[in-house]
Structures are given as C-alpha cells and as structure tokens.
C-alpha cells in the first residue's frame, strides 16, 4: 500500500487499514449513520470496505480513504475520504467526506483533517474541493466554512436528498499538504 502520512502536529491522516475495523465499528453512532453511511455497518461490510480502500490506494484509484488519527499513538478518531471521480462533479473537482466518532467531536479535528486532505488533493491534481452537505447537517457545514470553503450550488440526488455544496478552489491556495497551524483566533472556534 502507498504510504501517505499527512500531519499538522496534532492530527495525522494515513490510509485506512484492516486493523481499523474494530475501532470504526465501535465509533459508529446514529449521527454517522444518518449523515455519512446511510446504514448500520457490519463487521463483514467494514472488512470489505477496508479491503476496497487498500485496493484503491495500491492502484492509485479515485478513492483515497484516510483515518483521522490523534496523538503520538495515532488513535483512530474518524475518517475522511477523497473521491476524484463522482457523478455530478466536473473534471478536476474532488469530493471530500468526513466523520468523527462521538468522543472526538467539537475539538477542531475535522477542520484540521479537511485542511490536510485538501492540500493532498491539490498535490494530486485536484482543482476544486467540494463538500456536499445536507442542509440540516449544521456541524458539517460549519467545518466546511471554517476550512475556507464557500457556499456553492444546491443539488438534489436521485433519491430526493438535497445537498448544499461548499467549494474551495485549490489552485489559489499555497498548500503544503503537511503543516497547518491555525492562528489563536482560529483554534478557539474549531469544531
């Protein structure tokens, strides 16, 4: 598997791996099911997904799934993934999706992860990062705004789900892809 580690000194992003299955299952709650996965996970389903993620890394496929890890022991706090090919997105647009497990919410970790993964997306040729959020998901929309994403269009999926788009032009940024230290003002309001 391609070894990718992105870090800002507090959060480290590295590819999801098979040993993350138990932590992921234990961290799944109603909020993650509602906003991210759409259904309760099973061990078999998580194992199959983690194998798929590994295959995508090995093949440099369109999915790059990272674990959001915290601390020197890199405890898995959630996930964030990039999809370089998604129906409805233009060439060069990269979809960003994230979720944190309950004990890790409200600490600014999702914002940090979005900044790190956006730098990676830019380095991999992404032109614009897109976060698509259901209008009722205020926490995810707040992460997008704190990460410098601007409101875009509103779409509706085939199943009728409305999505507000938040976009960030990656070509205008000078991303290092590794280090981002928020200012004192930023760090006081990170989610």
TrEMBL record:
<dbReference type="InterPro" id="IPR000182">
    <property type="entry name" value="GNAT_dom"/>
</dbReference>
<dbReference type="Pfam" id="PF13302">
    <property type="entry name" value="Acetyltransf_3"/>
</dbReference>
<protein>
    <submittedName>
        <fullName>GNAT family N-acetyltransferase</fullName>
    </submittedName>
</protein>
<dbReference type="InterPro" id="IPR016181">
    <property type="entry name" value="Acyl_CoA_acyltransferase"/>
</dbReference>
<dbReference type="InterPro" id="IPR051908">
    <property type="entry name" value="Ribosomal_N-acetyltransferase"/>
</dbReference>
<feature type="domain" description="N-acetyltransferase">
    <location>
        <begin position="11"/>
        <end position="173"/>
    </location>
</feature>
